[in-house]
Amino acid sequence: MARSAHPLAHHRARPEGQRFLDYVALRTKLKKPLFYDPERRRGGTVRHPQFHKIAERIGEWVHGLGIPYDVKPNHGWRHLFKSVARHVKMDREVEGFITGHRPKDSNAGNDYGDRWIETMAAEIEKYPRYDIPALNSPPVPHKRRRRTNFDVAAAKAAKQKRKAARARRAPDGAS
């Protein structure tokens, strides 16, 4: 798991922010990713890893908060951060440290030295606070019904049946 230090704005020190920090500490102690549990995976492949499905679900949740469907929220967070960083005149180098981007006009010297959390924290304080009313509401119940072992077995049997039917229809030698 990749780890890096990032500052939090001071308003995250409020009780709801502390709950998030406690959650981060717990997930770190368990050596698990923040936003999904690898033990709950149901297969997944190199082409369709579990974290992609989690990203889809986060996007669905964000759209459920009223964000229009023509907006790609998971892709847009970094773009929004960079746009607001320009607006508040955040130091470009620090903004690059936070987003993981290197300024276009930088050279190898950009990698010298340490990335001090205090410096990043001072810059992140320039960032405005967002009030998102939906976050003050109780969580919406999960709409997805988890598939049972029977559902999985039935889907697997149906897939094998379709595969066998295709094999019977295919000309000799073609698969």
Characterize this entry briefly.
This protein is mainly alpha-helical and 175 residues long. Helices cover 47% and strands 0% of the residues. It has two domains: 10-144, no CATH class; 150-175.
Structure description:
The structure is a single chain. By secondary structure, this protein is mainly alpha-helical. The chain folds into two domains: 10-144, no CATH class; 150-175. 47% of the residues lie in helices and 0% in strands. The protein is built from six helices and no strands. The longest helix is centred in the C-terminal third of the chain and has 21 residues, at 149-169. The protein starts with 14 loop residues before the first helix and ends in a 6-residue tail after the last helix.
Number of domains: 2
Mass-distribution shape: elongated
Residue-averaged pLDDT: 76
Q: What are the secondary-structure elements, in order, as H or E?
A: HHHHHH
Cα radius of gyration in angstroms? 23 Å
* Share of helix, binned: 40-55%
Give the distance, in angstroms, between the N- and C-terminal Cα atoms.
Answer: 40 Å
How much β-strand is present in the residues? Answer: under 5%
Instruction: Report the biggest beta sheet as strand number plus sense, adding barrel if it closes.
Output: none
Low-confidence stretches at least 5 residues in length (pLDDT < 50)? none
Q: What's the helix count? A: 6
Compute the number of strand runs.
Answer: 0
Structural class: mainly alpha
